[in-house]
UniProtKB/TrEMBL annotation, chains A, B:
NCBIfam families: mgtE. The chain crosses the membrane at residues 314-336, 348-369, 389-409, 415-439, 451-476. The gene is mgtE. Pfam families: CBS, MgtE, MgtE_N. Belongs to the SLC41A transporter family. This is Magnesium transporter MgtE. Acts as a magnesium transporter. It is found in: Cell membrane; Membrane. InterPro entries: CBS_dom, CBS_dom_sf, Mg_transptr_MgtE_intracell_dom, MgtE_N_sf, MgtE_transporter, SLC41_membr_dom, SLC41_membr_dom_sf. Homodimer. Residues 231-289 form the CBS domain. SUPFAM superfamilies: CBS-domain pair, MgtE membrane domain-like, MgtE N-terminal domain-like. One of its GO terms (molecular function) is magnesium ion transmembrane transporter activity. It comes from the Bacteria.
Length: 477, 477
């Protein structure tokens, strides 16, 4: 832990500088666009005052311009795109939400889309084109320079959400016989190199990566030293077909800034940099809550029709599980007629089990997604969740049992509901681990279907244990 | 989009190199430790064969050694730490799960902890020490070099989860009058600089950052050019008190690799690099599912007692909402006695509303967390969710209404349940947006409490609408 500050005398003569940017009257404390600002843009668009709109938007960072598009209504977006066409650089398109970008791109001529795509890094261009209709995609590709078109077509040939789609073909690779000085001369040579890069890959004659070298090491090493003496040999290679979620986990685990992507023969074909991985980490970690709740992609920019289809399927699946619960209650109709309190209390038993199951399931799904829950520790985690469930079950059952016994002046009813709650919470704890782990072993995404099964188990067990115990205990004749 | 490959002739004479590392018989396809491997380590520890254990673990990456600790049972971890003490470098500690690290660190003498902390970057050292008891913390700090101790004490003076805790004091800052050549000489000078850095900060005489310079630009620019002509003036400055979630959002939005941290006077005090932000993005995005489900931190390494306390509170809160539902059902006891089918069907109406509410709530919570849902577009999103809810409500109500009418040969019962389902799904859609947005405006984390309120609303509305309509429609006398 050292502080690399300067000697104070090095600072002599340094002039006072202007305050740095990014703060403006368009952004609030949370770095989102202010409602007043968006209203002024909206009013300007409505009044057709394109110059005024341009003046407002001109100072924004491309990422904030992208946010502005997302905040406007769908029918206002084309007018904004026209008003600020000079500012619609490739960076804005790269930052746009997929749905919003598709919305705008579909309204542009193929030639304009091709111009934008050519300015983008391959990975951003692929993101822009991959969601277009086959026909529109072909029209855009036909307008592109052969070299760029070939790069995009190659990328599109890899599976969706794979490293091949995510990687950039802009990287710096040099042969292993170079010295640090050779490398610096090569970089200074004014070649058409990548715009920004953080590591240099060292390759052998077969173009297999043999090491990487952070730029800071190069800057700090004398020119005469061989690259093979500076480079790090132990590197994380990403197969071109690897799923983006796996890629994100590697970046996170090994704290990578960039990584070499290799084809099936081990040849270097691209690089992935951490800034492209950051939003994947965010999406993949955030999608569990959306998937578990059955909200599909859960993007607020998704067309209503898509949201409807994704969610209604889930509601219907849950309907089926609720039907099972209703059937169990129906079969105890006689008992309920005799003691109507059973009707009021049985949903509580089911609901508490559901809550406990959801807790355990959320923990298990996250642990599976982050590779913390593996074959090695499944038994330990199951035991752990069993213990937590016993503690929770006894606590909640005591509360609900005593309360019920007092309210209904019926101690046996209290014992019955308490016992049912313990049974259901323990069932929930076990199901909350076993269901997602089983789905994972079967190669399914545990976040997608766990919830239906766990709810089905806790609902059924709740109704069955409570009503069954009520009958078995002689509470109702 | 250009490919920066080499001329093939540059590759002449390059020798075939060894295959790169990270693949071993200890890791499976998903890059997690194989159960057989962990079993061999476990057996070795049990038999006291420390040399054999050392041999097994020796080839692992520090991040994998950290994983190994997490996979072992709590009582096996000290034995492993002893067996491989030579391999327990600072990198292993930096990668360990917080709970597991605390577990191990608490068993080490203060002097050893101080030695490890001195090797770590400030941010990692802080992460290691911040969870210790005040007394243990002081004991460790007392053993440290004054300079390192001062750095950690300063960091600990910032709020938890703030930029000040997260930042590293190892950064490179140079005055604005330097040229590219001056900078390279300064870096080559063999000073005690940061080990790895990706950008150089340019500061004025008051130590205020005026620009940043990626190392790739420096390497590609002639020595005589002034740094102020190469640097990027427009930079994202992170205030030292900023919450880590905000920091993560900035990194993501502006695709940053590193950023300058400034104090209240605008002076450069540290830097945050993207590799430290990546796991925050993952945690913050992943914690929504855990918080919404009421699982607290939801870490499988958390002590059982902590998990119990976090979860039981939530179950008791939900008990209260379930009680409200039970009270509503009870108040319709007369109707249920006359038509016991009401008891079987009312949980379905409540449960479907709960599912629909959870979907919308998950979408709203994610959109709030990623700054996509702001004051500017709340009305539009509410309207959007209303539309989706109407579509879902009509679809599900038709299914359940027709099925009920047929099964019970009672068309009026079908109409009643269908109407109640439409009402409840629309209520759920609105509550799913209004509840989290209101909590957010009140400065609360919408992921923490939304679920209790939304469930309470959909449960109550489900029972009340269904049983109320049954009575009002004259279905039951």
């Amino acid at each position: 832990m050292t502080v690399d500050k300067l000697d104070p005398d090095l600072l002599e003569g340094a002039a006072a500088a202007a305050e740095p940017a990014h703060e403006s009257d368009s952004l609030d404390a949370e770095n989102t666009l202010k409602p007043e600002f968006v209203r002024r843009v909206r009013d300007g668009l409505e009044a057709g005052e394109n110059d005024a709109v341009y003046g407002l938007v001109e100072g924004l960072h491309p990422a904030d311009i992208a946010d502005l598009f997302e905040l406007l209504d769908s029918d206002e977006r084309p007018a904004l795109a026209i008003a600020i066409s000079d500012l619609m650089g490739s960076e804005v398109y790269a930052e746009l939400n997929d749905y919003v970008r598709e919305d705008i791109v579909e309204q542009l001529p193929a030639e304009t889309v091709a111009d934008i795509a050519e300015q983008l890094d391959t990975d951003d261009a692929v993101a822009m084109l991959e969601d277009l209709d086959e026909e529109d995609q072909q029209a855009v590709l036909a307008e592109m320079e052969p070299e760029d078109r070939a790069a995009i077509e190659t990328a599109l040939s890899y599976p969706e959400e794979s490293a091949g789609r995510l990687m950039s073909r802009d990287f710096v690779a040099v042969p292993e016989h170079m010295t640090v000085g050779d490398l610096i001369d090569f970089l200074r040579d004014g070649r058409d190199l990548a715009n920004e890069f953080w590591e240099v890959f060292i390759v052998d004659a077969r173009f297999h990566p043999v090491g990487t070298c952070a730029l800071s090491w190069i800057l700090r090493t004398p020119r005469s030293i061989a690259l093979t003496d500076v480079m790090q040999r132990d590197q994380t290679l990403i197969p071109v077909t690897m799923d983006q979620e796996e890629v994100a986990l590697r970046f996170q685990k090994y704290a990578l800034i960039s990584a070499a992507v290799v084809d099936a023969d081990g040849r270097l074909v691209g690089q992935i940099t951490v800034d492209d991985v950051v939003h994947i980490i965010q999406e993949e970690a955030g999608e569990d809550v959306l998937l578990l709740s059955g909200a599909g992609e859960g993007d607020i920019n998704e067309p209503i029709r898509d949201s409807y289809v994704a969610r209604v399927r889930w509601l219907i699946a849950n309907l089926a599980t609720a039907l099972l619960g209703a059937t169990i209650i129906s079969s105890f109709g006689g008992a309920i007629e005799k003691l109507v309190a059973l009707a009021a209390l049985s949903p509580m038993v089911a609901s508490i089990g559901g809550n406990a199951g959801t807790q355990t399931m959320a923990v298990a799904v996250r642990a599976l997604a982050t590779n913390q829950l593996t074959r090695t520790n499944t038994t330990r985690i199951l035991l752990r969740e069993f213990r937590v469930a016993v503690l929770n079950g006894v606590t909640v059952a005591t509360l609900i049992g005593v309360a019920t016994a007092l309210v209904f002046s019926n101690p046996l009813l209290g014992v019955v509901i308490g016992t049912a709650v313990v049974v259901n919470i323990i069932t929930a704890g076990l199901a909350g681990v076993v269901v997602p782990v089983t789905l994972d072993r079967l190669g399914q995404d545990p976040a997608v279907a766990s919830s239906v099964f766990v709810t089905m188990i806790t609902d059924s067990m709740g109704f069955f244990a409570f009503l069954g115990l009520a009958v078995a205990s002689g509470l109702v004749g």
